[in-house]
Specification:
The chain is of the alpha/beta class. The protein has a single domain, classed as TIM Barrel (Alpha-Beta Barrel). The protein contains eleven helices and ten strands. Strands 1, 2, 3, 4, 5, 6, 7, 8, 9 and 10 form a ten-stranded mixed sheet that branches. Strand 8, helix 8 and strand 9 form a beta-alpha-beta unit. The longest helix is centred in the middle third of the chain and has 17 residues. The protein is globular, with a radius of gyration of 20 Å. The two termini are about 40 Å apart.
């Protein structure tokens, strides 16, 4: 019926009514907290603040265990680990070292908090001395197929250490299939793959590169990460990862790509993660610190919008704060 019989405001009148009819809900159980674990931190200073990301720090393994425990106590289901090794080389060999920083952190977190899921980032960029996500040819370009072999080796090493999910973020063609085969061949067939399927070459990654020490020594990653203007290609990437054995797919970044989140959710019918990346975090933090916005309201609105677009899982540096606000 038309106005005045139909009045949309009736169900907005009180907070209880609004909550009763809310279509999209945001809960701590939807959120994943990324952690940066650095090898060799001075025990007297086990946390290294990341200037570009207020409130986020590089952690020693013992501090990562503590942070993971806090996340679990807040009702967060998982942490996502990124490693900063003591030494780097051209191959990124620290990535698949069974005694590498992520592997050690995974074992320690799972020992202390066995019910908390540990997701491990599978990439070489934090471990290579050139900062790219794969092996370099003599002309400085990234070689896809040889890189895929090392990514599969990395995923196996992380899964052996106890990772509950492995998350390849490199954007090499065919890496999901290679990782699935390698895991299955090693008797690790129950370990799911969360594929960074639509990872765009974004300006919003800047603070992360400081956090992870992964800025390329030359060039950029546009030859393997996606062009921000391509939506159809993002869907194709996700569908290919599904065909290769991905159990979950991801869109990164989140807020500038909400349309992609929706399209990939509809195309794959799989659980979809969206990564609320470092630049998105830093923008809201900076605006809040300047008194331009209310941080709590803005963060919860942003995270709810990601869920509304179709994301089942939101990876965000706001996770602990959001969990407290939602409690």
């Amino acid at each position: 019926m038309a106005f005045p019989a139909t009045r949309m405001r009736r169900l907005r009148r009180t907070a209880v009514l609004r909550d009763l009819v809310r279509e999209t809900r945001l809960e701590a159980a939807d959120l994943v907290l990324p952690l940066f674990v650095e090898a060799g931190l001075d025990p007297a200073h086990p946390r290294r603040p990341i200037e570009a990301m207020p409130g986020v720090e590089r952690l020693s393994i013992s501090e990562a265990v503590s942070e993971a425990g806090e996340a679990a106590a807040l009702g967060l289901p998982a942490v996502l680990l990124f490693g900063i090794p003591a030494d780097k080389d051209a191959e990124g060999s620290g990535a698949w070292d069974d005694e590498g920083v992520v592997q050690l952190a995974t074992r320690a977190i799972k020992d202390a908090h066995p019910d908390l899921l540990v997701i491990t980032d599978v990439c070489l960029c934090e471990y290579t001395d050139h900062g790219h996500c794969g092996l370099l040819r003599s002309d400085g370009t990234v070689d896809n197929d040889s890189s895929v072999e090392l990514l599969a080796r990395t995923a196996v090493s992380q899964a052996r250490a106890g990772a509950d999910l492995v998350a390849p973020s490199d954007m090499m063609d065919g890496r999901v299939g290679a990782i699935r085969t390698a895991l299955d061949d090693e008797g690790l067939g129950d370990v799911p793959i969360m594929a960074y399927s639509a990872k765009f070459a974004s300006a919003f990654y800047g603070p992360f590169r400081e956090a992870a020490g992964s800025t390329p020594a030359f060039g950029d990653r546009r030859a393997y990460q996606m062009d921000p203007g391509n939506g159809d290609e993002a869907v194709r990437e996700a569908l290919l990862d599904v065909q290769e054995g991905a159990d979950l797919v991801m869109v990164k970044p989140a807020l500038p790509y909400l349309d992609i989140v929706r399209r990939i959710k509809e195309a794959t019918n799989l659980p979809v993660a969206a990564y609320n990346v470092s630049g998105e975090y830093a923008m809201l933090k900076s605006a809040a610190e300047a008194g331009r916005i209310d941080e709590r309201s803005a963060v919860l609105e942003a995270l709810t919008s990601i869920r509304r677009a179709g994301a089942d899982i939101v990876i965000t540096y706001h996770a602990k704060d959001a969990a407290r606000w939602l409690a």
